[in-house]
Sequence to fold (941 residues):
Amino acid sequence: MLPGARPRTAPKSTWARGLVRRLTPLTAIAAVFAIQAAAGAGPVLVFPLYLTIILLTALQLSRIDSLATAVLAAIGILIPSLVGTDQPADIAPAILLALVLMVSAVAITEVVRQGRDVAADTQRKADAVAASEERLRTMLEAAMVGLALADPGGRWIEVNDRLGMILGRTRDELIQMNLDDVTAENDRAALAEALVLLRSGDIVRWEAELNQLRADGTRVPVAIAITTASGHAPGESLLLVQETDISARRRVDGMRDCLVALRHVIVSGSPWEQAVPQLLSSLCAYLGWDLAQFWLADSGRQALRVRHFWHREAAGYEEFREQSRAMAIPMGFGLLGRVWQSGVVAALEDLSLPNDYERSDSARGAGLKSAIAFPLVESGVVVGVIELLGDHPRVVQDDEVTMLATVGVEIGQFIRRSDVAQALRRSEADHRAIFERSPIGIVRISSDGELVEANPAVLGMLAHDFEGMRENAWPDLLRAYDQAASRQRFAPLLAGITGGGSVQVRAATGAGKWLWLQLTATSIPDPNGRPEHLLVMIEDVTTVRETSDQLAEALESQRNANANLEKLDRTKTEFLSIVSHEFRTALTGIQGFSELIRDGGLEQDEVRAYGGYIFNDADRINRLIGDMLDLDRMESGRMGMRSGDVDINEVLSEAMARAGTAAATVEFKADLDPRLPIVAGDRDRLIQVVSNLVNNAIKYSPDGGTVTLSTRAEGGYALVSVTDTGLGIPPDEIGHVFERFRRVRSGAAQSIPGTGLGLTIVKQIVEMHGGKIWVESAVGHGSAFHFTIPLSVEDATPMQRRHA
Amino acid sequence: MPEPVNSGGSGLFTVLVADDNDVAQRLCKRVLEKAGYSVLIAADGLQAVDVAFSQHPSMILMDVAMPGIDGLEAMRRIKAEMPTMPIVIASAHSMASDRERFLAAGADNVLSKPFRLADLVSIVAKLAQDKKARDAQ
Fold:
């Protein structure tokens, strides 16, 4: 009782009780005094009585009370002697006795006080021990910790209620048991080892977390601390065992770790089919379940079917698994059907009790004793159910239910996301495969025209690696595209292609081969509709193009052939027309003058003159026929060339000599290179060429002048020039002088005779020797005909040849 | 260069022979003069046009293949100024199509080279007769 709670009247009553107690010795003294007085007893006689009273007072009352009583008793002894006798002798014993009494009282009170102190001390000590024991007991019983004493072998000696609660047994039951008996089998070895160490004194304290067995067969995780303590008997040692039920902490930790593990799997981004077994194993491992199954509603939402299965490594689940696999659980049926229907977590804490579990028998057969199922929810729809089964009955806690409901939503969303992601990945993979394996080249271009990606087809096609493609080939292609596009009135590549338009461009590969490429561009817009990048399909259309080119070429050449045929036909007709005209013109004179001669009546001079005309024209016809036949043989390649060593300088000299007699009007000049090598050729034909040119020079120099013949070696050829200072060739005719019958007949040249075939023949002969012929001319200044004849391979000069 | 020669008085029937071939010139001149006509000579198309305009011949015997402008062009120019000027094309172009071509171009008659001398004379005589008939009217 606390001091403050004491009633206010209490001191008075104590005081009153003290007064009463103090009256007792007073009364006793008064009684003895009265007896003494009445009986006249001597001091010696009452002395023991007084002494007894003092003794009792000392025992019963305080020291002051005892001394006061002793004083009163001494007075009591003295008074009769003082009053009753006059004799000093009688007083002396009384005084002596009174003194003895006083001394005795002092001694008694001292002894009593000492005795009292000892007793009080003893009492106090006993009280303290009792209180301490009480407190300890209270503490022991009130402790949240299970406490026990055990002998070194682990046998319980004393246990508190808490330990009994933890282990689900009464104290009496436990006392009969051993620490080992309540420890889960797989923790026993560790425990035994610890006990050995504790007994040997190697350690004085052992702490661990282990599972213990409750009376109902369930396990309880505990934190255990065992300390060695001394017993009553010397040398006896005891074990102080402390245990804490950590199942709550374990469950909370388990749930937290479980959530962490589940989220780790969920965010890993694996497809849900791969992730689900990990989710199931995490659920079991962290929440202490033994088996988990993942059920998914089928597409028509007709039934749940098991899709994944996970269990701890243990035998005996096969039948259960088979039965589960064979089942299609309709909505509302059994535990899973209920969860599917209601969308809330449901549990069967003890499958041995009557229940609606769909696979009760096989679950029992598999040793499964509890089950919990939670819905997988996505957008408010239950898409599946996960069930967890345990090999022991268990009380499902609210927090676990809440946690599983949350997990169900997360997994439901995860499945949905994963499906979407997979669909995306598949689509991406499809596109990637198209990109990678397409036989058509595909490149991806950023909006600023940079090459971002190029598929193997295009790299192979253009024989570039990606870098080469990006640095060189693509910029060239881009330019080529834009040029080709502008020709087709398309927009440039970067100016908003919307898809469509193909262009064909010519491009060189890294291997230096030229290809025709067909480029088809498509812009891919970003979410805002702006072109984000471009795809350009690149096809090698070289073959197609070349085939079509070849076809076009073939058509063209056919057309040309036809045109040539037509031209040939026209040429032939024209030729015939020209030839017949030439012949008829010549024949006109022949026929006319011969008719005049035939008809007679002519002067002799006339006949001679007319005969001359006839002869000239007949000769002309003869030359014409000869030239035509020559030309025909040359053009058809039938004219054989007698090839031999020819000294060009000698040819020129010969031609000059032949012409010289006929041309008194012109002056010849020769500028011959004496070191001109011998050439291979037909000497007669080359003389024909030079003679023809020389004759032309003379013919077209009607007013005389100079004809210069020169030779020199130049670039592997003998260059021969015949230059005159005659009429010259008008510019519009100079291009035609080597054509047949194209005689220059304008102006002063019109009356100069000729077959019109001479230069054509000259050109043929020069070309048959592998040379060329050309002419430079200016009207009024003369003409210069040049031709070349290749030098012989053996580069010998005539001099060397002659001296060889 | 042969100059056009006035081979007769104004009362004579004058034939302009335009031909670049001097043998042909000589033949025609010899034959026509023998037959009593006056003969003028031109050696190419331009000369023929000049002589036609300056000398007003009674008719023209025109070769086709001549340097400068050819006989057909010369005929076109002359006919443009002198539509009634009789022009006979005398050409060594003597394919069947050529005859049609020359007539279509405006020729009054066509004489193919080589020709019989009588043919030349009869063509000229016919035209001279026509002229005489016109003059008589």
